[in-house]
Write a structure and sequence with these properties.
CATH architecture of the largest domain: Alpha Horseshoe
Radius of gyration: 20 Å
Structural class: mainly alpha
CATH topology of the largest domain: Serine Threonine Protein Phosphatase 5, Tetratricopeptide repeat
Number of strands: 0
Distance between the termini: 54 Å
CATH class of the largest domain: Mainly Alpha
Order of helices and strands: HHHHHHHHHHHHHH
Helix content: 55-70%
Largest sheet: none
Length: about 240
């Protein structure tokens, strides 16, 4: 058996253990079935919870609570972080992230869930307003830390948006306001953006046709606290 096959077998066994524990309706057994497995197997169990909740709307909160109880008690597996990259997954796992205060946890690439969420090209409009609302109304210290985390490429989550997910479509006003609020929250500790990353952003801008009055240039210039002209003259 190859290592890939062995890993798949372990994940299948973990899910089988999990299902058996869930059927028992015993929370201690459910948490134990989660705790006894390694990172990738736990990630498979949580994926099972999400997919089951999506396919069984009447049981959505039940499986959401199971995920939250397991993560709060025994931690968020790093293998899940890259998959927290769209609104549906964030909504499902948000109680778990809040209960375990793991907003700023990183995976092997140094990414938080915000890096994954903001960089996902399949979600060209990241839910900036939703994240801002969490900053305003929930325990937010861990979430602010997540905004400031730099991954292995030295990019913050917002820089990942600029570099990997930028497009010419103007943001709706409420999302634009929220993005500026997130930028201000990131700056609140008086840290400065890393100017060395501007050339990565300029490479992304070169693929777009931005005029000097574009919203895109305005946002990026505000983030790096640099004149718009320095971004507009790319060539």
């Amino acid at each position: 058996m190859t290592s890939t096959q062995q890993g798949k077998s372990l994940q299948e066994q973990a899910i089988a253990d999990f299902i058996l524990a869930i059927r028992s309706k015993d929370l201690d057994k459910i948490r134990h079935a989660y705790a006894k497995h390694e990172d990738l197997a736990q990630a498979a169990q949580l994926k099972f919870c999400f997919e089951t909740a999506q396919s069984q709307p009447s049981n959505y909160e039940h499986y959401q609570n199971i995920a939250a109880q397991c993560i709060a008690a025994h931690g968020l597996p790093t293998g899940v972080i890259a998959g927290l990259n769209n609104s549906e997954r964030i909504t499902f796992f948000m109680p778990a992230l809040q209960a375990s205060e793991t907003f700023a946890k990183t995976n092997h690439q140094g990414n938080t869930f915000l890096h994954a969420l903001f960089a996902n090209p399949e979600q060209p409009l990241p839910p900036f307003n939703f994240i801002r609302s969490l900053l305003l109304f929930e325990r937010n210290e861990s979430l602010v830390k997540a905004l400031r985390v730099r991954n292995q490429n030295n990019f913050t989550p917002i820089e990942c948006y600029f570099i990997y997910n930028l497009n010419n479509s103007p943001l709706p006003e409420h999302e634009l306001t929220a993005l500026f609020a997130l930028i201000e929250a990131q700056r609140a500790d008086n840290s400065q953006p890393d100017a060395r990353n501007i050339h990565h952003v300029k490479s992304a801008l070169e693929k777009l046709s931005c005029d000097k009055d574009s919203q895109t240039l305005l946002v990026i210039a505000s983030y790096y606290q640099t004149p718009v002209e320095s971004l507009h003259h790319l060539h």
